[in-house]
Design a protein that fits this description.
Blueprint: H1 2-36, H2 41-48
């Protein structure tokens, strides 16, 4: 139960950070767009090809709430340590230069 509470707190913190980032971006975009329209910046912006930027808007498909299911999920059964592979598995051991050229 404690791990579920921690998960909820982490999700809430992540959502708060995302909201702050969206607000920061949209505020910066608004300020930039206003600056592009203000004299004398509008003269320089037009001469150098600066254009207004759009606000952040999530797609409708991104707004869908993901389905989370908690229940009796059994981890896959393991029958012992993993089988040893060939020389290409894992990093080279000390004294080896790497996998053989093939």
């Amino acid at each position: 139960m404690e791990s579920f509470t921690q998960l909820q707190e982490q999700l809430t913190a992540t959502e708060d950070k995302l909201e702050f980032a969206r607000r920061y971006y949209n505020t910066s975009a608004r300020d930039y767009n206003i600056a592009l329209q203000t004299f004398p910046r509008n003269l320089l912006a037009g001469a150098f090809g600066f254009h207004a930027v759009g606000f952040f808007e999530a797609d409708e498909s991104d707004r869908a709430v993901p389905k989370v299911q908690f229940g009796d999920v059994t981890p896959p059964a393991t029958s012992g340590p993993p089988a040893a592979g060939g020389p290409q598995d894992g990093p080279p051991q000390p004294g080896q230069s790497g996998p053989p050229a093939g």
